Amino acid sequence: MNINNLFFHIHYCNFRRFKDTRKYSTRIARTLEHHELILVIGGQGSVTVDHKKYQFKAGMLFYIRPGVFHSMEFDLEDPLCFLAVHFSYAQVNLMEGRWTLGEEPEMLPLHTAQDLKDYYQIEEIFSKLVEGWNAKLPGYEFTAKTALQLLLIAIYQNHKRHNQNFSTSLKVEKVIGYMQEHISTRVTLPELAGLVQLSPAYLSRAFKEITGYSPIEFFSRIKMDKAKELILEGSGKKVKEIAGELGYADEFYFSRIFKRIEGISPSEFYSKNVHVV
Question: Is residue 139 left, alpha or beta, with left meaning phi > 0 and alpha meaning psi from -120 to 50?
Answer without folding.
Answer: left
